[in-house]
Structure formats: structure tokens, C-alpha cells
Amino acid sequence: MTVRSNLLLAAAACLIVAACDKPKGAPADPVAAAPVAEPARPAPVRPAEPVKWDESSGRFTVDGAVLKTAHLWRFDGSTEGFAAASAQIEPARGGGLRVVEQAIDTIVRSPQNLAIEGGRYNGVVVRLTREKEASKWDGALFFTTPAHGETAGFFGKPLRGADPVAGETTVMVYDMANLRKGGGDWTASTITGLRLDLDDQPGGQFVIHQIAVVALPASATLRPPQ
Question: Which of 75, 152, 156, 218 sits CB 3.0–4.6 Å from 174 for a disulfide?
């Protein structure tokens, strides 16, 4: 037998042994499953919002009547003096303020020294569109006065329009005469600044179309049925 024949026999023997090492009927090696995309949240069923944005008048209205307004920001090609923390802000194409959340606790602050009479203007209205979702919504609205800065002891939460899904536009209405914390501090004070907290986690993106400090009638502060 030649050396070449011996080498061929040895190679064949190795193949037979390797085949015998794997039991008959053994399953194939597992293949990693492809990641499953997170399903989008369905849009909630919301009651009709009494506060609406009226494009023709450029103001917020209730039952067709224009709301008395202390301050209105429309962000037409400008940030209008607003600043952000844990986020990047810029004028959005077509109007509005785009907010791209980059870290936890995204904050959007108004200009300071507003000098708003809280007793006359008891509400804040924010119209916005969510472009991308983050995992944890906040929505608190803090405010400053000559007596205190931004603190967890004084803030409001939206009556309606909170936590929109991706692609949804809502009107968030804050009844600042009835704070989540702080009693009647807003109505007894001169308001010098606002701070809007959006998401508590990074990754979300919004376009804020308008923010207004207004005098809300009773019909605008009624809570929807639970």
C-alpha cells in the first residue's frame, strides 16, 4: 500500500469518528433570534378638548372665544429666548420648537422676569406633537416667583393632553389655580418664569407649537370623566 493510500484511509477514519461524535437526530445548532420591534402604543381615546388653537386669530380659544393672554410663544423661526437642559432645542421647519431629549429629566425653560399676575392669568396651555417616544413621561410645569425658585414644592400637572403617542398632537391644559403641589401660590404670586419637564428618559422628541399663559374660564378647567 502506498503512502498516498495510507493518508487517504486516515482522513476517512477521522471523518467517520467526527460523524459518530454527534448523536443521530441531534438538533442543529441554535440560531440567534432576530430582535422583536417594540410595538407602538395605540393612541388613547381622549375627550373633546375645550381649549383649541385658532389659526385665523393666532390665539387659543374656548367655545370660539379668544382667551385673554399674558404671554404667547409661537416659535416662528426662533427659540424666543427658551433654553433647555438634557436636550437640544431648535426652531422646527414649518414653525414650532423641536426638543430632542438627550439625557434623563428633560427641561425646557422660558425666559425669566415675565412679571405675570398669577391672580389674573390662572392657566398655561401647551400645544405639542410627539415625534418619538421615550420610556417615561413626566409633564410637570414648575414656576418661579420673587419668593421661590424651581422647587418640587410648587408645580402643576396637565388636566388633559398628557403623554401623547408618537405622531399625536395634543393641547395640554394646566390649571395653575389648582396646583398638584403648592396650594394657591400661583394665584397669590407674580410669576417670573416657567419650566416644562417632558420625559424623564432620553430618546424622545417633540415639537412644541405654542405655549401660552392665559386666563382660563371654568369650562376649560373641568376634568374629563374618569
Answer: 156
How far is residue 144 from each of residues 38, 109, 115, 134, 140, measured CA to CA in Å? 39, 11, 10, 27, 13
- Please name each of the domains of the chain with its CATH number: 55-217 (2.60.120.260)
> One-letter amino acid identity for 121?
Y
Torsion sign (Cα): 73, 77, 82, 84: positive
Helices (H), the chain: 3-21, 218-221
Q: What does the alpha-carbon distance between residue 178 and residue 110 come to, in Å, rounded to a whole number?
A: 21
> Maximum Cα–Cα distance for the chain, whole Å?
110
- Of 110, 134, 123, give the one whose Cα is nearest residue 186: 123
Residues 6+ apart with CB under 8 A from 72: 58, 59, 210, 211, 212, 213
Q: What is the pLDDT of residues 108-151, one digit of tens each?
A: 999 999 999 999 999 999 999 999 998 899 999 999 999 999 99
What is the pLDDT at residue 205? 96
Question: Is the separation of the CB atoms in 141 and 174 below 8 Å?
Answer: yes
